[in-house]
Design brief:
By secondary structure, the chain is mainly alpha-helical. The protein has two domains: about 60 residues; about 120 residues, Alpha Horseshoe (Serine Threonine Protein Phosphatase 5, Tetratricopeptide repeat), CATH 1.25.40.
Amino acid sequence: MIKFLSRISSICLTGLFLFNSAPSYAGLFEDDEARKAILENRLENRQKIEELKTYNARNDVEIDKVKKNMLDQANSLEGLRSEIATLRGEKDSLTKDLSDMQRKIKDLTQAFEMRFAKLEPVKVTVDGREFMAEQSEKRDFEVALDLFKKGDFPASSLAFNDFLRRYTQTGYKLTALFWLGNSQYATKEYKDAIANFKLLLSIDSSSPRAPEAMLSVSNCQLDMKDTKSAKKTWEDIIKIYPDSEAANAAKERLARFK
């Protein structure tokens, strides 16, 4: 009995001790949970921080890529601007070159047309006859005739001879023969003058210069003291060209030499 009571007493004391000690064990348990929760929070925060760092790092990489792309685009744009400026400069240069070339072509065309115009035959009328003559031909004839009008008969004789030699089919032929004969008459080359006057008559006896050419033949004959031949020529003039001024002059001279 005493042992039983002693055991019960021991149990009661132990229970009392445990009852009094319970709050301490609960506090220890709660501190461990708090620490565990704090550790978990810290770990979770660290993970979030690492994730945030990783995210930021990726963002930085992407930002760098965007910056690089923007820089490349800016450089490309600047390159395009430079190329456009170069092309504009080349366009302006080509436009100027084209304008210069067009002006040169126009000048060359005008020069060619002017030069060609100088080479084109022209229509001339001489002694009532109309024909086409080369411009050089017309010029050379007028030069020879101008020498005659100035009284430079030796020079005009040479010029007309050269003209007839160079332009064998010229429309000026009869007129050139007439003035050549007159140039030779003026230099007292009577035989040559008569030959050229008669050549004119043999080519075209109906030429407006024919009556005057026959009268010039008579002048040469008279100056050569060949009065008989001169009289025969005057008679022929009156017979062949009765209505001409040369015929009137021939009549007067025949009356004078009777």
